[in-house]
């Protein structure tokens, strides 16, 4: 009886239903307790190489949000027609197609950034976060929640990218989005930029520290 | 020949897949709890790299690159299928991984039982896809160059995962702050290993 009632409510929900608390949770959980990088350990692969500066990191974050969102949506729409045995190749084809669209758009609209990102846009295909969400969520859920889940996870991932990029750019070159934020008087007083932050290994150490802080705040995430 | 040797050293140490480009981090973190399995995965990566990069090199050169189809007919000189490279590369990698798995299972059951579980994982290892994409971006001219690069990167990746696995084995006996345990300390260690690998940066060959 209660199921019937629920079904009726779902049927006539309209816009309010689309943005219900349950759906919103899908969107916001990946920012904190269920973050794809620091908790699920997905998609670290290609991400960190683009975090030396804010601008490429932001573009990368947006690209990942687009790919995860639409890949989840498309796979969720197709989920009942995909034969389970060949689902991996179907998923890869959908992801690769979306990534090609993103890559071509970037080349046309923002050529400079696209040069900086070099192979890392292409590597979104093998980014575990996309496949991970498809397998874990989109194959078993309706299109709209899947889309939100994809966008949420992409954004949670992008958030970490942007934090790491901010720290590295701020300490490494004293700029944010290319604008000088550390006043010249600091440099006159003997302050120098820490060149180590620009180099690749610092991305890993910064991320390690972020995980440390995150887990100190959420004690239940601590590994045994 | 000298050129190839220098390319090999560069791809193992200087342009290390893990420390310089963070490729293949997922399996690098997940399967580095003990040295034996880490080495197994490392060898599987070298093996698959050695096959996929040259194959993708030929596909790129004779099918996808601008003017690559000229061998078919001179009329196709202006055709540039570069935009298809992502989908072609990933399809080739997935197919070859499947093929390698079947061939190894048939002809070398001993190798299969040691590599078996890792092979399917490798299809989505970013280091493999990264190898093919770097090969395309850096425009290696000959098959020999592409193959050398592939073997070098594979060995570099193997070296990195065996190194971190050895450190993590020892780490079991040390007192790491609780929130840093597992993932956190693995990242910081990788960063420190990366810094030590940076001493190869100055090498001119």
Structure report:
The complex is a heterodimer of chains A (224) and B (205). Chain A is an all-alpha fold. Chain A is built from 10 helices and 2 strands, in the order H-H-H-H-H-H-H-H-E-E-H-H. A two-stranded antiparallel ribbon of chain A has the order 1-2. The longest helix of chain A is centred in the C-terminal third of the chain and has 31 residues. Chain B is mainly α. Chain B has one domain. Chains A and B meet through helix 5 and helix 10 of A and helix 2, helix 4, helix 7 and helix 9 of B.
Task: Sum up the structure in keywords.
heterodimer, A: 224 residues, mainly alpha, 10 helices, 2 strands, B: 205 residues, 9 helices
**Secondary-structure element order of chain A, as H and E?**
HHHHHHHHEEHH
Distance between the termini of chain A: 44 Å
Number of helices of chain B: 9
Q: Report the helical percentage of chain A.
A: 55-70%
Instruction: Report the average pLDDT across residues of chain A.
Output: 80
Tell me, briefly, the overall form of chain A. Answer: globular
Secondary-structure-based class of chain A equals: mainly alpha
Count of discrete domains of chain A: 1
Oligomerization state = heterodimer
Task: Work out the helix count of chain A.
Answer: 10
The average pLDDT value of chain B, as a whole number, equals 83
């Amino acid at each position: 009886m209660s199921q019937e009632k629920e079904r009726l409510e779902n049927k006539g929900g309209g816009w309010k239903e689309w943005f219900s608390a349950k759906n919103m949770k899908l969107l916001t959980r990946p920012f904190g307790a269920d973050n794809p990088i620091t908790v699920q350990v997905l998609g670290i692969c290609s991400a960190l190489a683009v975090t030396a500066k804010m601008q490429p990191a932001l573009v990368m974050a947006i690209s990942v949000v687009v790919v995860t969102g639409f890949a989840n949506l498309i796979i969720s729409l197709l989920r009942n027609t995909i034969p389970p045995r060949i689902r991996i190749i179907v998923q890869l084809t959908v992801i690769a197609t979306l990534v090609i669209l993103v890559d071509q758009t970037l080349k046309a609209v923002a050529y400079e950034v696209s040069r900086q990102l070099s192979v890392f846009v292409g590597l979104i295909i093998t980014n575990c976060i996309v496949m991970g969400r498809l397998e874990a969520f989109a194959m078993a859920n309706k299109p709209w929640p899947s889309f939100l889940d994809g966008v949420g996870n992409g954004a949670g991932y992008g958030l970490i990218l942007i934090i790491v990029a901010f720290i590295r750019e701020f300490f490494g070159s004293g700029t944010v989005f290319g604008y000088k934020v550390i006043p010249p008087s600091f440099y006159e007083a003997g302050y120098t930029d820490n060149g180590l932050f620009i180099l690749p290994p610092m991305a890993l150490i910064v991320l390690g520290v972020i995980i440390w802080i995150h887990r100190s705040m959420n004690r239940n995430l601590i590994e045994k | 020949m000298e050129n190839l040797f220098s390319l090999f050293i560069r791809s193992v140490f200087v342009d290390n897949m893990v420390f310089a480009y963070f490729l293949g981090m997922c399996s690098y973190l997940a399967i580095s709890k003990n040295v034996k399995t880490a080495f197994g995965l490392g060898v599987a990566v070298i093996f698959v790299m050695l096959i996929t990069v040259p194959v993708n090199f030929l596909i790129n050169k004779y099918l996808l690159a601008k003017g690559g189809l000229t061998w078919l007919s001179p009329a196709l000189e202006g055709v540039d299928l570069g935009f298809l490279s992502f989908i072609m590369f990933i399809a080739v990698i997935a197919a070859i991984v499947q093929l390698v798995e079947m061939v190894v299972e048939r002809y070398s059951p001993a190798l299969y039982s040691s590599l078996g579980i890792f092979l399917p994982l490798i299809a989505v290892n970013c280091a493999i896809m990264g190898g093919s994409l770097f090969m395309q971006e850096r425009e290696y001219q000959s098959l020999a160059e592409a193959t050398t690069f592939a073997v070098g990167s594979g060995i570099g990746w193997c070296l990195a995962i065996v190194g971190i696995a050895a450190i993590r084995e020892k780490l079991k006996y040390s007192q790491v702050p609780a929130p840093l345990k597992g993932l956190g300390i693995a990242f910081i260690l990788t960063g420190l290993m990366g810094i030590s690998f940076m001493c190869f940066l100055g090498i001119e060959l």
